[in-house]
Structure formats: structure tokens, C-alpha cells
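From the pipeline queue, job 12 of 40. The input is one protein chain; the requested action is below.

Action: predict structure.
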Amino acid sequence: MNIADLRKEYLSQGLRRKDLKPDPFEQFELWFQQACQAELLEPNAMILATASATAAPSTRTVLLKYFDREGFVFFTNYESKKARQIQENPQVSLLFLWLPLERQVQIIGTAVKISTAETLKYFATRPRGNQIGAWCSQQSSVISSRQMLEMKFEEIARKFQNREIPLPSFWGGYRVIPHGFEFWQGRPNRLHDRFFYSRQEDGSWEIQRLSP
């Protein structure tokens, strides 16, 4: 198999400057709604890139749980690798890849912890099994076996049997506050459309077309 021969020609009609909304949050909401309407698998899946204080990079896929004009929120264990890196260096990027629509969106911003009250509001909506999972997983730590993880799950399930599961103190959310958005639309001959929104000092957004 020759990997170099793997290619797909993008046939989209493209993305024009005049079709863009002046506000990147509105443009993202439009594209996100279209991704959901297309019934893509996990349209809220996003690649989160972080870096340590020494600039060692790390990426992983997380799920966007909600967004508004303040930013984009995801949840994790505050003792995980991603959380440790965010504590050292809060500058992060998010990448949404919607290949069936020949689109991707990159968001560059600063990650900050959300309040406990906001985390609790979301935690209460999680399925009970997911709530238990938050308690039993020491995210990113080495474990001896799958069996040990499942035994821990059963132990926590018994501990909170017939009662409300409390919010773990080591689990919560981050909000990524954007200062840049890039909207990418595939085009034929690799002449893709790319537009970058950058936040200005007065809070407005400047839009520039980037070379593919």
C-alpha cells in the first residue's frame, strides 16, 4: 500500500468572504448546526492541543459540552495530564474536523476553570454510570489491569448505592476563551478556502483570508 497515493479531491462550492458572518461565534454555531443536521458521528468531538511549561505538546480528543459567547466548555479530571499542562500553560487550541462536509474549524484561546456551581449543574445531568466513572478513574495514571478499573467502578457503585452521587472535588470543567478562529473549507486542487478571525483590542473581530 502506497500511502502517498491516498488522496481525495474536495468538491465543495467553497467559502466566500461575503458569506461569512462578522461574528465567529455565529459562524461556528451555523457550521456546528449543519454538522449536527448531517448526522455526523460525534459532531462535538474536538482535538484539544496543550503544551507544558517546557513546550512539550500533547493532543487528545475531548467532547464539547456547550458553548456561548464566553467560550467553549469541556470537562475532565483536574489531575489529568491535560489539566496539569493547562495549569502550566493555559494557551490551548481546539480543532473540529467534519470531513464529510469537507470542513474544519480551529479555535485558539486561553483555558480557564469554570466555577464549581457551573460544573455541578452539568455533572447532575450526566448518566449515573458516567458519574461513577468520574470517581473511579485516576485519569492518565498507570493501572495494572482492566480488572482493577472495573473493581473500582463496582466499589464506587456500592458506596453510593441508593443515593445521589456527589461531585468529585478533582473533576470539573474548563472554558476555552477564544482570541482566534480559523474556518477551513476544502476546495478542488488543494486550493482550499481559509479565513481567520482575530480578536481586536476593542473586542471586534478582524477577518483575513489565508493562503491554502
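Job complete. The chain has a mean pLDDT of 94.
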